[in-house]
Amino acid sequence: MSDALVSISNVRKRFGDLEVLKDINLAVGRSEVVCLIGPSGSGKSTLLRCINFLERYDSGDIVVDGKLIGYEDQGGKRRLMNAGVLREMRKGIGMVFQQFNLWPHMTALENVAEPLLRVQRMNSTDALSKAQKMLERVGLEHKAGNYPTALSGGQQQRVAIARALSMDPALMLFDEPTSALDPELVGEVLQVMRDLAAEGMTMVVVTHEMGFAAKAADKVAFLDGGRIVQFAHPQQVLKQSTEPRVQQFLKTYHARNDF
After folding, report:
1. Domain boundaries, the chain
2. What pTM, to 2 d.p., does this model score?
3. What Cα–Cα distance (Å) separates residue 233 from each residue in 10, 58, 230, 239, 248?
């Protein structure tokens, strides 16, 4: 895929004797939303973490914006990428986790501004101004002065998204961003993600929210046992799949008419 922002080729990953990723091939085009779905333990989160090299992959290539991430070729041998080069690459990749990981002693505004101060070396005035704009982007400008304990789970996750967006990433990774939320708070986070998709943000999302995958994704990848069983348009995977394992997994969702 010539215009792919993320290109994953023949990637394998082991934890000891357990091979959790088995010859993964996947491409994510610019401005595409790709959802990774499948049962727990299928390798979804591991694959996501490999994309920004929070997990080392054992073989294969992961290329982000034209550059191999995590490794460098030196004299025909693969070596770990220089830590400074990796940090620069990661600046273009935002990541939102299941847990919000906000600093409890900082306000929402300060949480968003902190990476701008530490990583981008912005001055305080500019960092706080940009942080305010990022909170506005996720609909939380009125909560700028609140500490995390005074925010709902959905609001905390939206602050975490604003923090990731503050770095102006070309790519956003979401690792089950609604799994730690009460059901009534899920919608507000998914709406922010839908808005980002509509703006053309390239996103890779690990999710169990089949409705979001059906409506917001350009492609859906179903993983099982460390392999991609099917990678196609949401309609083909979620409604028309002939893969028995996909059909089995989705059966309960279809029964509840969730999407």
Report:
1. 31-55+94-256
2. 0.94
3. 21, 29, 10, 10, 18
